[in-house]
Design a protein that fits this description.
3 strands; 313 residues; elongated; three-stranded antiparallel sheet; mainly alpha; 15 helices
């Protein structure tokens, strides 16, 4: 089983991003390899996979359980194609997936609906400036950048200094979720804020990790939020995630009247159908205008204390 996983990860290398390969490795190891790595892969059966899968579901890890089964199923198919398992080997992962489907057990993430209203954003800003906030400087910067630009939190934590042009007020993203490079317009406030961060500059990333030369781990954001809630050091608002901030920007700007095409281009969403083929506009001037409107609005929600100085201190 351990060799099966290793062969599959080698197959993925180069076809998926490094982070994606690491996530697959962690999932396969935590659910199966750690306890059953020395088992002959041909002896994997539905009973064993059902046991480890339902152990995840019983802990509420439905999404991880589904991801595990999909990746293991693919790993088994690779082994069959390579002749390392018999061609008539029955894929037990597919059998367990069929069982979950029959029982109507959901193993995919549900579409998020959480977004923060203005009173919640006020409390969030107050918390970010308070001694109760347990975020590191890099984590604060990632949250701020996500909320200021509507970028993905993964894009925020991996932002490079070399990709940001403060004179033009632009941030060039070449490595995106959709694979299509895009430019993020920076509001006047965001440009001024990033200038204050130069005193913290250490290496190539805006959000450097304290553990080395790489950038902050995306999981550290959600883990730190979980820790803050567990220790009652969380703002007095309902549970939220970093991705909810991106949804907040889009929702609030929709209420303010941003055109749909501009809003979707701001998020870097791929357009489908005929529109996706013929409308290749980036709408950068319009995005700049609306992000300026948004950041002007954020200024009305921040405490009077200068947040820029707090983050840079």
């Amino acid at each position: 089983v351990e060799s099966l996983a290793d062969d599959y990860l080698k197959e993925l290398t180069g076809r998926r991003k490094e982070k994606g390969v690491k996530d697959v490795r962690r999932t396969l190891n935590n659910v199966l390899v750690k306890n059953h790595g020395k088992l002959q892969a041909r002896l994997l059966d539905k009973a064993l996979l059902q046991k480890v899968t339902f152990a995840q579901i019983d802990r509420g890890n439905n999404v991880q359980a589904g991801r595990f089964l999909r990746e293991l199923s693919a790993a088994l198919e690779v082994a069959i194609d390579d002749g390392k398992l018999p061609s008539d080997f029955g894929n037990p992962a597919q059998s367990v997936m069929a069982t979950l489907k029959r029982r109507k057990i959901r193993t995919t993430a549900q579409a998020g609906k959480r977004w923060l209203k203005d009173p919640e954003l006020r409390k969030l800003f107050e918390w970010l400036q308070s001694a109760a906030c347990t975020f590191s400087n890099s984590q604060r910067i990632a949250i701020e950048l996500t909320l200021r630009t509507a970028c993905r939190s993964g894009e925020a934590i991996s932002a490079r200094w070399e990709d940001i042009d403060l004179e033009r007020g632009e941030w060039s993203l070449t490595d995106t979720k959709t694979g299509v490079p895009r430019t993020i317009a920076l509001s006047k406030q965001t440009v001024a804020w990033i200038r204050t961060l130069t005193v913290l500059r250490s290496g190539e990333f805006l959000c450097p990790s304290s553990k080395g030369s790489h950038h902050l781990s995306q999981k550290s954001l959600t883990h730190q939020l979980w820790h803050a809630r567990k220790t009652n050091r969380h703002p007095a608002i309902d549970s939220w995630s970093p991705h909810d901030l991106r949804r907040t920007v889009r929702t609030r700007l929709a209420e303010m009247g941003i055109p749909t095409q501009v809003g979707e281009a701001m998020l870097g969403h791929s357009r489908s159908g005929v529109e996706g083929i013929y409308d290749l506009a980036e709408y950068l001037p319009q995005i700049r205008e609306w992000l300026q409107v948004w950041n002007d609005h954020l200024d009305t929600l921040r405490p009077k204390a200068n947040h820029l100085q707090v983050v840079a201190s």
